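Deliverable D4.2, example record:
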Amino acid sequence: MNDKDARKYLIPGLERGLTILMELSRSHREMSFAEIAKRVDIPKATAYRAIQTLEYMGFLRRHPTTGLYSLGVNVLRLGFEYVASLDVVQVGQPVIESLRDATGCSSHIAIRDGQDVIYVARVSAANATIRRVSVGTRLPVHRTSLGRMLLTGLSRAEFEELYPDEALPDTQPGAPASREALWRLVQEDRSRGYVIAESFFQLGISSIVYPIYNADGDIDAVVSIMVPVHEIPADERERLRSSVEGAAETISGLLGYRSTTERQGT
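Output generated by the structure prediction step:
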């Protein structure tokens, strides 16, 4: 079905309501009625009805003093219910808790959504000094070690579909200079099978990342630890790497993944 045919079956009111929610989600701030109507480019009367409906259903919240709108609790509830429904979260949460206890480092599970990494599970170390990320936090794929590991499951065609332009979305410190530079990094990560990134995204923080595979052998997610040092000490490096690798293998196994060695042995 082409786009023109597909649009015949769309419900305009629902489309407008979801567009408003997505705009507020992207902005990460409160917005006035006039701002919302302008950003989503719909008539004010239509925007008013959509906003009133969303507020009534708890998907928008209007500040009693300023009159500004923000996402309501029902949006958060939907998000957390989605996260809780992910098998990788259900089976992975106790594993990353054990990983945190074994390493003393904050541990995370993340998935990819387009050009974003989304944290879907996390546990913090008791004495964590690193800026915490919460469940639902999004970060750019190309600027994070977790994102690079998630990209290792893509073919060249899929990679170029994800990043159609040679220039990447931004060139902040730590980001690869171009799409080709990112591809080269991803291929090195694929060959290695994991990422140890020291101060790659945030100065003074290192991370160790391993892929999580599903029953089909595809990369479903990644598991990582954040180490609060600029460079991981040599005497700790292998222990920490091995711990993350073991956690990734455990979660992958719980998802039904069988390694090539396991399949050959049966």
